[in-house]
Every structure is written in C-alpha cells, then in structure tokens.
Amino acid sequence: MAHLEITQLSKRYGAFVALDGIELAVERGEFLVLLGPSGCGKTTLLRAIAGLERQDAGRIVHAGRDISQLSPALRDYGIVFQSYALFPNLSVADNVAYGLNSRRADRRLIHHRVEEMLELVGLPGSQQKYPAQLSGGQQQRVALARALATSPDLLLLDEPLSALDAIERVRLRSEIRSLQNRLGVTTIMVTHDQEEALAMADRIVVMRGGRIQQIGGPQEIYRAPGNDFVADFIGRGNLLDATGAGPQHVRIGDLLLRCAGPAGEGHRQRFYVRPEDIRLHDTLDQGENSFYAHVVKCEFLGAYSLVTLQAPTGDARPLVAQFSANYLGGREIRPGATLRVGIPAEHLRPLPEAA
Amino acid sequence: MKVAGLSTLPPGRRATVSERLGGPLLLLAAVALTIFLLLPLGALLLGAVRDDAGAFSLARFAEFAATPGMATAVWNTLWVAVVVTAITVPLAFVYAYAIERACLPLRGLWRIIGLSALLGPSLVGAIAFIQWFGTQGVLKAWLGETSVYGPVGIVMATVYASFPHALMILVVALATADGRLYEAADALSASRWRKFVTVTLPGARYGLISAALVVFAYSVSEFGIPKVIGGNFPVLAVEIYVQVVGQHNFGRGAVVALLLLLPVLLAFAIDWWVQRRQQAGLSARAVPYRPRPDWRRDLPLLFYCLLLATAMLGILGMAAYTSLVRFWPYNLELSLDHYIYGLAEAGVLDAWLNSLRIAGLTALFGTPSVFFTAWLLEKCQGGPTGLRPLVRALAALPMGVPGLVLGIGYILFFNAPDNPLNGLYQTLAIMVVANIVHYYTACHLTALTALKGIDREFEAVSASLKVSPFVTLWRVTLPVCLPAVLEIARYLFINAMTTVSALVFLYSPATLPASVAILNLDEAGELGPAAAMATLIVLTSAAISLLYSLVTHLLFRRHQAWRQGQR
User: A127 and which of A93, B75, B110, B385 could share a cystine (Cβ 3.0–4.6 Å)?
Assistant: First the structure.
C-alpha cells in the first residue's frame, strides 16, 4: 500500500465541481507536484489532504490510517502557504518553535532545534529578527523551517514560490528540492508553473476541471503527453489533424509524413510535434518528412528564436518552430523567406483526445 | 516522527477538544444576542399588537392613529430629519474634503475639533444653543422673531451632534482615492470642476449615501435634543418618552417605538445594500492620491474649517462657560458653584460615578465579548448550519435599532413578572448589557475588519503544528489586533458615557447615569448644574481619548520592529 492513498475523492461547491473522483497514490519519500491552471482543483486537493476542506465523498489513507474525517490537528503534516503565513508579532525563533512549545519540550532542546532548522534552510543567526525585517524568500525559508521543525511525516506546499520574484524563485526551488532529498520527507506541492513542476517533481499530476489528466515523471509528461490538454499545457505543442495512410504514415494536409505511432488506414487522428523538435534543412535537402514553409514571423528571444511558419498542413493554424541560437549558428531568418523544414518521424506523435 | 499520543485517541474522535469548542461557543453568543436583542424586540412587537387583556388586536394602532397630534409628530420627525440631513452632509463633506484633499496646516487639529461633539451627550449642543440663542441668549437677535425652542433649535443641535458621524464616514470615503485617475484627468487637461464631478464625487458616492442615511437615522431616533430644546414641538422620540415615563402606557409606547424603528431600520437596510455593491472600488494597484498645495483651493477651505471649528468650539465652550458662570445672565462672575452645588446636592457626583462604572464595565465586558464572537465567526469552524448567518444578522441588527426602541423592548421583556431574568431590571448590569448591544454593530465591524486583515492561514498553520486555536488567538491574533481592540474599548466607553436614549428607561434612582441626570436637571430648570455635568462628561471622554492615543502611540513604538507596513 502506498504511503498516502486517495480513493474516489470528490468535492463540489454548489454547481462547481472542484474534485471529481480523484485516485492518487503517493509513495514514501516522493516529491509529487500537482499542476494545472487555476480552478483545476489542485489547491482543493491539497487542502483536502490537509483537512482544511472536507470532501463530499472518498477516502484518504495516510500511513495506513484513515484520516478522511479527521480535523487538521489530528493529521500529521507540515504546511507552507504562498502568503508565508508567518506570525508577524513573533520573532523568527518563536515562529520556528511555535509547534514545539505545545509539547512542553525542554527549552534547551527547543533552542537547539530552532538553530538546527534555521541552519538547514540557510538562515543561521536570524533568530531575533521579525518576519517584516526579512525578504520574501527569507520569510518563505522561515515558514519552511517552521513546517519541518516538528518532523512531520508529510510536507504540503501550496504555491510556495508564487509570491517571490523570478531570481529568488529559481534559487529557492532548487533549495527546497535538495532539502527534500536530504530529509526524505514525502512532499506534495501545488503549482501552476509548469517549469517549476518539471524542475522539482519526481512525479507530476496534471489536473483540469477537478480531474486528473495524467500522472507521470517530468520526462514522460513532456515527451509523451496523455492527451491534447497536457500537450498544450506543458510546453508548447503544434496540434495537427491527420488521416492514417498506411501502417506508419499519415496524411496531414498536402503532406505525407512518417510518424512514431501506428496509424489506422483512413482513420482521423490528432498528432502533435514540439516546436523544438522541428528541424531546419538545407533548401535543397529532400530528406524524409521535410517540406517547404513560409516564415510569417520570427521572434528573437535571446537564447532561442520562435519562428511562425505557414506550411501546407491543411490547417489555418500556423506551425511554430523553436530554434536555439546554438542550432541556427548565426543563420538569419527573415519574415517572408521560404525554409525547408522537417519533422523527424519519432517526434510526430499521436494524441488521445482529452478526458 | 509520529505525533505523541495519537495512538491513544479513541477511535471515534475526529477533532481535538479545542477545535470542537468553536461551535458551542458561537452558539452561546447567538443565544446571548437572542436574549438581549431579539427577544426584547419581539416583546416590543407583541406589546404593540396585543390589547390590555393580552389578546391579539390592532386596536393600539387604531387608537394611536386617532390620537390628536400623532400624525403631526410623525410628519415633524421626518421633515426635521430630512432638513438635518440636507444641512449636515454638505457641511461635513466640504470639511472632510478640506482635511483629506487639500494641503491645510494643522490637519490633525481640524479633524479633532470636527469630531469633538462625540465627546459629550447630544444634550451639550442643545444646552449651548439655548445659551446662545434662547430667551436670554447672547445672540438672540440673530434669529429675529423666531424662537430657538422648536424646530430651529432641534435642527441646529442635531446638525451639531450628527456632524462628526457624517464626518467620520466622509473622511474615510475621501481618504482612499486612486491617484492615477487624477493623473489621467490631468493628462486629458480636465478642468478642476470636471475632475471634481467625474472623479471625486463618484469615488465618494457610497460614503455620501452612507453618511446621509446615518444622519437621517440619527435625527429620527434622537431624543435628548428635542426634549431639551424642542419646546412644545412634538416628535416621535419624545412621544415615546411621554407615553412610557409620563403616562406609563407601555403599549402605546411600543406602537410609537415600532414607528420609530421602521425608518431607521429601513435607512440601515438601504445602507447595507448599497455598501455591498461597493466592493472592489479600489484595486490593490491603486496609487494613493496626494494633494499638492494650491492656495486658490486651500485658502477658502482653510477659512471654511476655521469658521466651522470656531462654531463648534463656541458650542462646546458655551456649555463649559455656562457651568462656570454664577447666575446667567445677571451675574457673569466665574465660579465653581454649580459643580459644588451639583456635587453636594443634586447628586452630580453619584451620577458621574455611576456613569464611570457603567462605561468602564461596558468597555471591560463588551470588548472581549465582541472581539471573541467576531473571532469565532471568522476564524473557527463548527456549529450547526445556519448558525453563522444568524450571528452575522444579529450582529448587524443593533445598528438599525434606536436606543429608545431597545430601551422599551428591555422594559417590556425584562420587567415582565414571569421572566426569569426579571431580577436584572433596573440593575447596573442591565444598563451595561443594553449599552453593549446598542453599540454592538460598529464594534463588530471594527473587529471583523481587523480579523480579515490578518493572514487567513494562521489557523491552518497552527492546526498543522498541533497548536490549539485558542493559543494562537492569545499569542498571535490578539496582539496583532490590539489596536482594533483598544479602539473598540474606547468607542464603547465614550458611547456608554454619553448615551441617553437606551438608558433613560432602565435606570433606578441608585443607578442614575450622568447623561440622564443632565436631562433631569434641565427639566428642573437647573441649567447651570446640567452644564456642569455635561462638562464633566466631556472632560472624562476627552481624558479617555487622550489615554487611548497615548497607549496606541506607545504600542506602535514598542512594536515598531514587527508592525512595519501596518497602519
């Protein structure tokens, strides 16, 4: 049995379905990320695990104990919120020790534990400061120390990085991940930032409309999205309407391309290709799956360029390609030019319809 | 690590003891509010629709309608309230505009003077206007042939007394403006007048509506002013007093009270409805508006403030002066005779001590009850469904109930021989409770605003750390909300010190409060001692306000390290 097991969890707010039959198993020591657009139910799911929202139906079993009906105080977790939720009138030390005091532990032990926790999150010596005297990133580190001070069995992170500026966000996310590795505490984090999810997670749970769309490792989610929603939400994707034309071939508009998956003869299906998987060929190269395309627009974005292409895909939607500066090697792409581009067969993937 | 003791929990337990306390405690608050607010109002309603034999009948209404002069009283009450509103709101709006939107020197001083009428009972204005414009008044000639005893005096004194209530609302409405709107208007080279009409007025319109309704309700329910300066001019509030105290006709009093309750309740219902639509008036991105000096605007406004402040100080000063003059207007020698006579013979000292006791107890018991109930409502879970909306409604109701109406309800309910709480009648305790209930709404809103202002995840965090919500209330929520708590205590104290209306039916000779004593002294023609008593109340309120400012100042200094960015 998994460390945390959720079965058929459902929750409605009036007519709005926040959670719809969620099934999820979290392994011990795992870093799980709940990812999705706002309103997808990811925060509700986290709050249900914390006992802050009560589900209408379903079961949550944590470490072999059914906690579905227990109040938050009777569950075993630490939680960190986007707003930090630090107690403004208490010093950093008192904040970190907040959960330790009630157990009437020895003062020296508490003192020692606070010191240890602050060192762990990289804020040694800031015991006497007040939250208002710290930066956002430092405050979130204190919140993390406070949540971990009681050695909870489960760590819940509710968009912990969303309130921070870009640089601090990247720095803290790797710190949280390495801290989690070191402590081995089972962690569930909610975020709407796909980059954050890909960078931090052992496994990602993509959600939409109260349902789980796909569960998998970052590579898997990115490389093999389970449906068009996931393909579109994680990274960019070009969706293509195709008709099967032989066991390994599809017809997309005027193009006959070899593809990765099996395609039924005459069967209509959606395929997708990632912008960075589109290749740039020499103008006269007649290689497999290559074709001519007109450059509509070229956006220079520093490390890479996004090129909007008009290709004979029989679709009004243009094809978006992403070429790294490295790959282009100084070659300039101007609007109006004609390029020879190709889609490698292994990157042209079939896509199930969204649930 | 497992939480110690978790395995020993009985299998059926789903929440800690302190988590389960929230519901029952809130239920207790609901019961208390029901007993001390809803049931007295219910008794009032019953009293109005039952005849002397106790059977249901509308006879009292018919009888009331047939009583000569009653229609006049209703009409008088309404038109006086409309006139008062039409004068007070523009006066207060310009004053608030001068404080918030102009660059005047001594802004704080103008503000304090503008609010000074709050320090004393409403009777202070009435007494002062008698001294200025009465039969032997200094400025009697200003009114020509018109007598101040009647609608003129009532309007003047009510405008004075309701001015700070309108000012408070309008200052808040004008304080929060989005500077970007003015910059946009400047960029489009809009004229001064155009900016005022298209940006300032719309921004303050909810404040204006609210101020108008509050002043209207104030005027309708005001009782002390028409009693003292109204002469024979009949209004509803005095009519209740006459029926209940003069003729002991509680049934008729209940009917009049219902008539009084109606417009006031209506005014506050409209206000509540309007305020609900106000949400999101100012987005988080708004840039506060900072006025720049401009003498063409500032100078007239400064002159205006000077004029009004002089008038208000003149009114307050006249009451104090009257208390010190030996025998108005024949012997203007200053002395403390009225105080000495009052203290020694007219029971001024006892009344003042009673008032101090009532005000102190009101603040002492009211503040924690109000704050704790608001906390249970806002930060705790549990209790039967429907309990929270009920408590919210009960907390909002007192705003729409005039003190006189509450007072009659208390007589009818607690004086009933078969009421087990009958023993409370005419005690100090019932007066304290009446005050707490009467001023509940404003305090509740203050507490609620403070509680909503702090992070809503504090309770979730403490639950995850296995800390009782009561410990977090004590260690975090209360210290963070301390300024609001002090504000509630000050508000309760000063209002309990100055109120007349709710207490006029509830006191016994032993518990006579100072504000009611003024009324009795005035009735006995003892204007000097009455003024002395009023001055004493003003001084007490001023001292408490000063103490409040001092304590909050010290508090913010001590908490400077963590209160950064607050206030």
Answer: A93
